[in-house]
Amino acid sequence: MDYNVTIIGSGPGGYVAAIRCAQLGFKTALIEKYDTLGGTCLNVGCIPSKAMLDSSEHFANAKENFKAHGINVQGLKVDFAAMVARKADVVKQNVDGIAFLMKKNKVDVHHGIGSFVDKNTIKILAKDGSEKKITTEYVIIATGSKPTPLPFAPFDKKRIISSTEALELKEIPKHLIVIGGGVIGMELGSVYSRLGSKVTVVEFLDNLIPTMDGTLGKELQKVAKKMGMDIYLGHKVTSVNVKGKEVTVTAEDKQGKALELKGDYCLVSIGRQPYTEGLNLSAVGIGLDKGRIPVDEHLRTSVDNIYAIGDVIRGPMLAHKAEEEGVFVAERLAGQKPHINYLLIPGVVYTWPEVASVGYTEEQLKESGRAYKTGKFPYKALGRARASMDTDGLVKILADKNTDEILGVHIIGARAADMIAAGVTAMEFRAAAEDVARMSHAHPTYMEAVKEACLAATANRPIHI
């Protein structure tokens, strides 16, 4: 065999799997169809979107909050081209970093489309049309996902766009219509709202960020409306039409009442779908289940030496979930016994305020019939939040009614994306709400809201409200 392990796809799951395999002594190959490593996350997803979110947040702060801090700014304006260029530079630094890590760990990188010849042979088709084959003992499929289009309105990449194109626009939209009020829709919608676009969000379900706790969606809706975004919940989009530079979106509510919106761009963010094209899975007898590759508890496919991780298999489509699975498979192949607690993989929305969640939602606990108690604490009662003018948001703790074990941590507020790690840690060690409530938290910090929410959940005795 040429290699012990070959990974197809160099996104967060793939490149992390490659590094861990190399660390464990496996001769490792990584196959990537594009010229740069890092997959969707580093090239057209997580990293560039966060760069744009940060840039637009700086502008919004300068425009709306600096004066209150005693900072007067004259002639404030957006240099959109410079903002996009900075984003591109951030992406380049990250993908160059991954290329460096491959060299450092002696991982062989092959650029081209990898497809199965048989379970131990991979054909690599390069961009110039040349082909080569490599043999391998094990294969890890980590080919990720792609944006899901509306069946009646495919992406034209000009006016009907996905998140990929939304990060490469040459102008700030006058009116951006966003179909889908989930993570991607709310993040990119907030970017352009801060930069001056009119933003309208149309969501089929009755809550924003519907996979998260309902309280977070309601709070995010309040914040979005304060930003000037129009939100239409419970609306089904029926058509999207482009005429010149104008996009017309029609939708209807649950009573059948029609809604017509006209804008210059329409961002379709209704989700993502596994990307398995070109793998030639039939050559090794691997079938798909609703587009995903079925795997067992060890992330092994129906073929004993082929594994799959990340967006192509079950579970949330999150970069850090794929990373954990990449490490998991590498360590399984080395004879170790790693584990992943899927309940404790956090979810984050990088709007401002940020939204972060881990564990059970209140809706899930109600549905399961589990007895629970709730503790909440608002950011507006925090000294640190008042000092920074970040008073929107709250912390919500869900705990078992009888044992006090923390079952869910849900935060909307400044620095929620970083704070959620404390919730993951507490839940990994099966802490009770009282355990966290009795720990000393530095003052003044945002994390005090977590302590206070735990106090509220434990015995309804928060100190500062």
Q: Overview of this structure, please?
A:
With 465 residues, the chain is of the alpha/beta class. It folds into 3 domains: 3-146 and 273-342, FAD/NAD(P)-binding domain (3-Layer(bba) Sandwich); 160-270, FAD/NAD(P)-binding domain; 353-459, 2-Layer Sandwich (Enolase-like, domain 1). It contains 13 helices and 22 strands. The protein has helices at residues 12-23, 39-44, 46-64, 80-104, 163-166, 183-194, 214-227, 319-333, 362-368, 383-388, 416-428, 433-437, 448-459; strands spanning 3-8, 28-32, 108-111, 113-118, 121-125, 131-141, 145-147, 160-161, 175-179, 198-202, 230-232, 236-243, 246-252, 258-263, 265-268, 272-274, 306-308, 347-349, 354-359, 372-378, 394-400, 406-413. The strands form 5 sheets. Strands 1, 2, 3, 4, 5, 6 and 17 form a 7-stranded mixed sheet that branches. Helix 1 (12-23) runs parallel beside helix 8 (319-333). The longest helix is centred in the N-terminal third of the chain and has 25 residues, at 80-104.
What descriptors fit this protein?
single chain, 465 residues, alpha/beta, FAD/NAD(P)-binding domain, Enolase-like, domain 1, 3 domains, 7-stranded mixed β-sheet, 5-stranded parallel β-sheet, 13 helices, 22 strands, 25% strand, globular
Blueprint (SSEs and pairs):
Elements lengths: L2 E6 L3 H12 L4 E5 L6 H6 L1 H19 L15 H25 L3 E4 L1 E6 L2 E5 L5 E11 L3 E3 L12 E2 L1 H4 L8 E5 L3 H12 L3 E5 L11 H14 L2 E3 L3 E8 L2 E7 L5 E6 L1 E4 L3 E3 L31 E3 L10 H15 L13 E3 L4 E6 L2 H7 L3 E7 L4 H6 L5 E7 L5 E8 L2 H13 L4 H5 L10 H12 L6
Parallel strand pairs: 1-2, 1-6, 2-3, 6-17, 8-15, 9-10, 9-15, 10-11
Antiparallel strand pairs: 4-5, 5-6, 7-16, 12-13, 13-14, 18-19, 19-22, 20-21, 21-22
Helix pairs in contact: 1-8, 3-4, 3-6
